[in-house]
Amino acid sequence: MRCPYCQHEDTQVMDTRASDEGDSIRRRRRCNHCDKRFTTYERIELAMPVIVKKNGSRSEFEPAKLRGSLMLALRKRPVSADAVDAAIHRIEEKLLSSGEREINSGQIGELVMRELKRLDKIAYIRFASVYRSFEDVAEFRDAVDAIDEVDSERQPAAAAREKRSG
Ligand SMILES: [Zn+2]
Fold first, then answer.
1. For labelling alongside 3, which of 10, 23, 35, 151 has CA 20 to 30 A away?
2. Any domain includes 150
3. What is the pTM of this model?
4. Is residue 16 located within the same domain as residue 94?
5. Can you give the pLDDT at residue 166?
6. Based on the domain organization, do 54 and 125 belong to the same domain?
7. CA 2 to ligand 1 centroid distance, Å
8. Do 108 and 82 sit in the same domain of this protein?
9. How far is the CA of 38 from the centre of ligand 1 (A)?
10. What's the gap in Å between 14 CA and the centre of ligand 1?
11. Where in the sequence is the domain holding 135, given as residue range(s)?
12. Closest Cα to residue 71, out of 132, 141, 135?
């Protein structure tokens, strides 16, 4: 903390206490250079960072979108609702505690991948294999739908091939 009188950076905290309202911390400081005293107030500020897409557009963090994307990746997978809730909670905690005012959509994708990796390998692969080429988590949905379609078309054909070769 820089001294407001002489701009020196070497200041010392002499006393720390909560404000009467309890929503801020009051610190009495002393400048080691000019010996003047001053008081600072610290407020807790926890806010979700704004999401910045690759094209530079900004949007609010939407928990419903995050959940929708996770659920899509986890579709038909044996993962409990509690485990999904916990994963979403961890992602939100990381965003909140990052202290950043803005965060790239890609970083959220990375957080989602990390959680999916712990939850379910198949869901992780589903997400990881398609997510990287998309702007945000929401666009991932269309891609997963497309993969499902390809899978259901390919499987009977693959089975037929195996029959022929075997
Ligand atoms: Zn000073």
1. 23
2. no
3. 0.55
4. no
5. 47
6. yes
7. 8
8. yes
9. 9
10. 14
11. 50-142
12. 141
Q: Is 147 within a domain?
A: no
d(CA 71, CA 135): 19
- In three-state secondary structure terms, 141 is helix
Render pLDDT for 97-152 as a digit per residue (tens, 0 to 9).
Answer: 887 889 988 888 889 989 998 999 889 888 887 766 655 566 666 656 655 555 55
The reply to whether 15 and 97 lie within a common domain is: no
Q: Are residues 95 and 31 in the same domain?
A: no
- Taking the centre of ligand 1 as the mean of its atom positions, its distance from the CA of residue 33, in whole angstroms, is 5
End-to-end CA distance of the chain: 75
Protein residues placing their CB within 5 Å of the ion ligand 1: 3, 5-6, 8, 31, 33-34
> How far apart, in whole angstroms, are the C-alpha atoms of residue 31 and residue 33?
5
Residue 120 CB: number of other CB atoms within 10 A? 19
**Spacing, Cα 111 to ligand 1 middle (Å):** 44
Number of folded domains that form the chain:
2
